[in-house]
Each structure stands twice: as structure tokens, then as C-alpha cells.
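Dear colleague,

Following up on Tuesday's group meeting, I ran the structure prediction for the two-component complex that the binding team flagged. I've pasted the input sequences exactly as they went in, so you can double-check that nothing got truncated or mislabelled along the way. The C-alpha cells for the whole assembly follow below. Feel free to forward this to whoever is handling the docking comparison.

Inputs:
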Amino acid sequence: MSIKTPYLLFLGNAADPLAAKVAQGIRDWRPENCVGQLRLEGCNADLGLTDMTPNEAAAQGAKSLVVGVANRGGVIDSSWVEALIEAMESGLDLAAGLHNKLADIPELAEAAKRLGRQIHDVRHPTRSYPVASGTARCGKRLLAVGTDCSCGKMYTTLAIEKELRQRGVNADFRATGQTGILITGDGVSIDAVAADFISGSVEFHAPENTEDHWDIIEGQGSLYHASFAGVSLGLLHGSQADALVLCHEPTRTHMRGLPDFPLPSIKECMEANLRAASLTNKDARFVGIAINTSNLSDDEAMAYLSKIEQEFDLPTVDPVRTGVARIVDNLL
Amino acid sequence: MSIKTPYLLFLGNAADPLAAKVAQGIRDWRPENCVGQLRLEGCNADLGLTDMTPNEAAAQGAKSLVVGVANRGGVIDSSWVEALIEAMESGLDLAAGLHNKLADIPELAEAAKRLGRQIHDVRHPTRSYPVASGTARCGKRLLAVGTDCSCGKMYTTLAIEKELRQRGVNADFRATGQTGILITGDGVSIDAVAADFISGSVEFHAPENTEDHWDIIEGQGSLYHASFAGVSLGLLHGSQADALVLCHEPTRTHMRGLPDFPLPSIKECMEANLRAASLTNKDARFVGIAINTSNLSDDEAMAYLSKIEQEFDLPTVDPVRTGVARIVDNLL
């Protein structure tokens, strides 16, 4: 799955900045991987990078064009095809995390074959994985778990990786979803792996390492999500996590996509994750709580963080408002 | 995935009776689906069915040839190809649950296309499934769960279905593994479904039903198996089980395939399953315990069953030695 870096970020005809949030994530977390941006007519997003053609990007050293824009439904806009072929003609590979595959578009598949380019549709694992062995492995691992889906696990783990690296700690973010894969150029879209290999794919992508090395593993879903809990459990077991961070969005009224399902309490969610984690790592412990307070005012946010911190006696942060330094202090 | 019945059972060149255990399972549980058997030279298995050619089987009404034999490694023996093509020429579809696909053998794929026959490789789901909704659905469901893999879940659930039907209860076994699918002609090989759709595939194959109907769902794996627990959890959530049966093999010294992992106690395994089941069905309860005592003497077996029954105050049976009638008594 390794995508060659650096990238030309393709913003296409993004309807608004939010439509280009994948590209935004890449620019925020891996600026060194971004050579420039390519925008089509009608594009309403701008990452502040130099606008360039594929040829110009290739001349600057770009190796891949990454589709950093999403349309409604995650489909591929027909207006993109010409630009993507031009990129391959300029020597760039393609990468995207859309629902539909770039490789399923005949013109793109034909051009890739003709030009000898790779097309990475990162939502769709192409390699096969071993069944998890469960065998203890060297190196240390942190995993983000959540009360629900989409409550900040990727952001939290990327922030922890950045903080660790700034402190000189040997650390790698391990992506388990398509945006994370595009940001780092590697990882597994774990929700698309065959069910038998969920844990095995994590053992593969967060392998044995030196004793002082931290893998910071992006979490997915929640043990309390009735649609996806199996993914979360397999991820927990495969991670053999030494350290867990609980992610939570306090204003959500029900589990994402499931109007009849209330959120678990932070306490029961932490207990369930610790019980399950202990199967493959008896020493697993929580090192912090990351709250997504984006729907709260400053005052509400700080009061909520303080309340949760008191209740659980763990560093409680909002990675965006306060940073994750206090979690990293506790980790090290 | 629906396989047309009845079947001609293909035993090939089975090295011994055990190699034909899939065919044996079909004959034991769905004798009405078995028209005859087809054996090649050197076959050391015999189901006691009439030996017949594909042409003879088709004349007797057979609609599919089912590969009921496994070679070492689950591969397809080259000596089978001629017989399988002959079957398709006689009008039969093919079905198999092997690791390698029949459809990947060019001669078979070509013949199927030429003759308009279906090839069902039941280990490899071909349909797509919805994400689980978690919405409560009408009808009742029983699920077998286990302390480990391969401890009797399929046998137990098939026996419960049979007992229920004999008592006039509207009940259907729902297969979640390849042997179960070949036995009943339908179901999902749940360990091969994309991780996001584990629970959704169960909701699909054990759908809403009349209030007096029981789906008897074949379990897979164990919440305590470090390689496969995600499958078991998704299956538990998708089942929305009203009734659970715990399956256990008392002489096993470690989790199957994982020498470093001891088995959980029956008690902790039941508690973990009840906790997880309650997410999608608050009324889930255990209705019995099924022990695979095949490695114990008669005396040891009866003593063990009695001990467990006293400890948990639940009907405790060996489906082979004692039948499952007492579990069904408790269920109804």
C-alpha cells in the first residue's frame, strides 16, 4: 500500500473548504510531503500551497497525485479524469480514499497500464494478511479507543505522534483508515479487511520494534457501536496496546448513525476496553482522555475537561484547544 | 449464495472417512437433500448413499454437485476437474467450501460459462451486505457462543434446530461457516466478510420473522480468541440473540492455534458474552451449556456434565451423547 511521497494534492472542483478536508489533513500533519496543489475550475478550497500543473509538480519532485477532495457520496467526478490522466503522463502515481475505485474507471486503468503507474485505492486492501498470532512483540504501542465513531481518534493520535517526535521519542502513527493512510502513505483500511484478519492486519502494520519505539495506532469505531464493534475489538487485540487513550464527544445524543442507541458512559467504555485489551496485554492502561469540545464554548469546554479529569484522575485534554502534551507527559 | 438442492455429494479420492466429513455432515443433517454420492478411484470414504454418475444423479433430480471432501490444505485436486466438468455437462451447478476457488480453475470457469452453470465457492462472499442497523427485529434468535473455536457450535445449533422442528416449532438453522452453508444451501461465511459488515451480514441472513419463529444461528470463534474475537463480537451484535448456548471442550489445554493462550473459564466467558449481547438485546440470557465430551470416557463425561449443571443451574448436555432436548425444554 506504500504511496510514494511527496505529493501533489488534488482539490478538484471542491464545493467548499470542508470538501477538501483530506487534503487539509495531509497538509496539516505532513507538510513536508506536499509539493503543491492542483485546483480545477470552480474550486472553492485553497490550502495556501502553490498551484501547479502535474508537470510542474513532477519537476519539483512530486511522486504521487493524491485526491484530497470528496464529492457527495464519495464518487469520482467525471471532470477529474482528464487531470488524473495528465498527472500519470507527467510521471505521477495516483492515490485516493474514495468509495469507488479510481482503478475501476477504464480510462484511468488503461493509462496506468500504458504508462506503468500505480493507482492506490486505499479504502480497498489489495494485500492479504496473516491470521493474528497474539504473540507478545517488542516495542510499545498506544491505541485510541472511543465511546463512538468519528469523535477524534485520528486527530488525537496524530497529535500524540507529533508531540512525541518533538520530544525526540521514536514514534510512528499507524493509520487504520483511508485519511490516515493518505496522510502517511501507508497503513490499512481496517474496516475493509476480511473479518478473520482484523487483528492480523494490525500485527502486520504495527510490527515488532525496538524497545524504546512507540507505535501510535489510529483507533476505529467503538466497542459500543452496534454496527462496527467487531472492528474495534479486533483492532484492540491486534494492537496489544500498552497505553490507551479514550476519545469522546460530549454533546452527541446517540451513537453515530444509530438513533436508538445512547452513548455509553466514559467509565463503562473504559472498563470494557481494559477488559478486552487485557486478553493480549495484561498491562494495558489508560494514559489520558481526549475530548472533542468543538461544540462547546470556551468556558463550557474547560469546565468539562476539569470535571472529567477529576472524575478519572487522568490527564484530560482537547487535542485542538489544549494540545496533548499532558497525555504525553503521563505516557513517558 | 443459495445453492440449488438436492445434491450429488462428491467424495473424490478421499484419503479416509474424515476427509469427507463435510459430505457426512450434509447427509446427517439434510438427508432429504442427498440424491447420491460420486466417488473416484482410491476413495476411502463411503456415506452409504447410492453411487452414481452425474448423469444418473441429474436424472434423479439432483441440481448441484457439492464437493464434500477436503484435501490437505483445502486445495482442489487436479484429478477432480474432469468429474466436475462432467457434472456441469450433466446440468449440475457446483458448490464447494475450499480455500481455493473452483471458479479460479480456468477449465471449470470456462465450462461453467459455456454451459450456463453456477459455481458457488461458499467461503468467498460474492454479495455485498448493508451496515448493521441494530434495530430490534421481530422473531426470536438463538446463538451458540464458545470458550474457543471448533468446540461444537455447528453441531449444537443443527441439533437444536432438529429438536425444535420435531416438536413442531418453526425454526431455521442459519449458517455462518462454509460447512453449514453447504448443509443448508444458504448462509454467510462470516469470517470472509469485510470487517465493517460482520453484524450487517447476520442481520441479512437472520432477518425479521414471525413472532413464533426461531432462527438458530451457528456461532463462530470466541470472544476470547486473540485472532478472531472481532468476528464473534460482530456476530453476537448482529444476532440480537434472545437465547445463548455456551459451547465448551473441557480437555483443551490452550486456545486453538494459540499455544500461549489459556481457555477462559465458562463463567467469565458467559459473563463477557452476556455483557456484549446486551448492547443489541437487553433480554439476552443463557438457556443451556453444550459440552463436547468426545475426549472423555462415559463416566468422566456424565460426571463433568453434572458438575457444570450444578455450578450454573442450566441444562448441560453433550449434543452427541445426550442430545439437546433439555436445552430446548428450557428454551420453550
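Chain B touches chain A through 38 residues (CB under 8 Å).

Cheers,
M.
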